[in-house]
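Hi R.,

Here's the chain you asked about this morning:
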Amino acid sequence: MRTCDVAVIGLGLMGSAALHALARQGVEALGFDPLPIGSDRGSSHGSCRVFRRFNAESAAYTALSDQALAGWRALEAASGTTVLMPSQVLEAGPAGCAAVSDSRAAALAAGSVPTGPRTGAEANAAFPAFRLPNDWDVVMQDSGGILLAEAAMRAFRGGAGGRIILEAARLTPTPAGLRITTATEEVLAAQAIVATGAWIGDLIPALKPHLVVTRQTVGWFQPANPAAVAYGDFPVFLLDGPHGFIYGFPDFEGRGVKAARHDHGPPARPDDWGPPATDVELAPVSRTLGAFIPGAAGPIVKRDVCLYTNTRPADVRADNGEEFIIDRLPQDPRIIVASPGSGHGAKFASAIGEILASLALDPAFQADPAFRLDRFSGFRS
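And here is the predicted structure, written out as tokens:
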């Protein structure tokens, strides 16, 4: 039987970042994932994710963003690959919109004074693709970007030095170690990092009551005014409007404007990756683009499905749910849990990978309390 110090089960952005961090430190680690890069399944699949430095969802996120930014730049230097394309990020919503005011407050708390448009009228003047109501609130981040998710996973895996087994893995704790079993391999690991996204409840059943998986649909739209939504001339956008919270990207790939609704979709099971996104599911996005970003509006030219895996609200240290789990399993500290990413964790993956490596290598290291399992009464040690 093969042995290793750390097994990493699940090699999406978080798991592959952890494997890369461990390999860089000379740890004998093995990674397991049945999905090759380019698969249309898995929480990290697809070409891109939004990177924001200032995030209103948690006070812990600005420091995590800064650590992640340093990590993305280090990965670029080590791999010779671009993984983070700089881009302005514009958030907008009706006058008094909490999402906009909270993001502005997060920036100010970090010592950064937002510049750029502050109203819908100013945003329309700066970016002709928009047609926001003149009195809408707007906040702009100049330190955002487009995270190239597939390129980042390729760079992380490429830096793992051939330590990857492209097979699904099962985990069985034994007194001698953690037995990792695949169709062709059996490995005994001293520790394991489990980062399997929507599938994590299958490997760690105790997590299932605290998780909800939802179906999220994504579309690419052929823009009415391609020049107005080109990368460099148009920002990443987040609109809190009448049709939901809609986010999207400039046409940086030459295949249209990618946009989706961030609000939770219907409940799903971990293997529910079909059927393709329908016109009805994407109607809120189409209506938002038509009403507020006519330069980006147009026919749907590509469709995709993502799964969000969110935590339910905690009951010890109260939170509203939708938060990460990054912690050792109290019932068996040899097992480190690194899911879910909650639909907004991708941008932090380079930092989370380092945190996971520290959890494996330093018994005294603890993750941020906001991410720990002891916020749930069922995991109090």
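One quick note: The mean pLDDT is 95.

Cheers,
M.
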